[in-house]
Input
Amino acid sequence: MASDGDAGGGCRHVLEKLTPSRNAVAVLLGGFVLGASVLALHLGYMPQLAGLRLPGRRKKRPVRVYMDGCFDMMHYGHCNALRQAHALGDELVVGVVSDAEITANKGPPVTPINERLIMVGAVKWVDEVIPDAPYAITEEFMKRLFNEYNIDYIIHGDDPCLLPDGTDAYALAKKAGRYKQIKRTEGVSSTDIVGRMLLCVRERSSGDHHTHSSLQRQFSHGHGPRVDDGGSPRGGTRISHFLPTSRRIVQFSNGKSPDPHARIIYIDGAFDLFHAGHVEILRLAKALGDFLLVGIHTDQTVRSSGFNRGAHRPIMNLHERSLSVLACRYVDEVIIGAPREISKDMITTFNISLVVHGTIAENMDYIKQERSNPYSIPMDMGIFKIIESPLDITTSTIIKRIVANHEAFQKRNERKEDSERRYYENKTHISGD
Output
């Protein structure tokens, strides 16, 4: 009879015959890991092996969409078009038409391309900008968009864009099946804004009644000068088709609040005919803190004697100006109808850390004023700062450009007005934002 030790040795002997060697186990495990890895690569993913998270599935390439335009006298309608275009993809590439192309197809632009590039690049829905884009989508340029810029779709509004010969500027994109359409933002256009300024210029001249009335018909689109409650005309911006809604404000808003310890910068103004000068001062203001709050004055405040801008200002109404500012990537929040004077209560309510003002403005008389200085309280608190304006551009600069070339712009508007009138007469409801 075998001893206990012998019995144990016999069991071990049997197990050694039935159990693979350590080397065999290692080979089997290695083969399993290698096979699983090959299978995972074939299927496009890697599972967790021995607690190690291996690289995951490659992300899909983002959908890139392209939209082009002149973006002359850029306004909230342009911005809303870019917002809608961005919603149709993941990344929005924008082509800005050259000055020469605009002149050849429409007449001279109001703002040169360097300013238009600043404006387009500052819109918060824009990811990339292509300067000097052609006015018409040629086959060569379309191939460049698809191959070089990886564009999936070309976007345009539901209003027709015709070349001087009457052909569709986006015919090739439509034929290629790479075209998508968005809804035009009604109530404003560059033609309309130039028309408002031309009308204001003519209203100042009392001797040319015939020209004034013809311009009024030409640019009013069915509505006359702004009237007060009593029905009498008063100087100012004509009422536009624009119908402000809370949804549009929400669409343009960032929808975020500053952190409790954020450094909040405040800057205010009219921001009429939102231009590159406005964008650049807002960019510098935002760089001074974490959260940029912009105060936008009411139409009545802008027309007041304190601003010294005349009865015909502002050209754009309060809601139009608010949307243009909200679309700027440097702006976090706006106060619609901000007070002219900055009070201690306002500073406390909004937790303002610094109030800033640029060196280029329509009216710098506040520096000389003592009793009526709107910035006296932040100055006394030591939280007021003057920052150097990068561009010597004001709203008056834009108006002067129109006045200096009013005949050329009037002829351009005469051509454009017919197509806009036909659009409004023949338009149908198109779903969209």
Observations:
- Residues 34 and 331 are 53 Å apart (CA to CA).
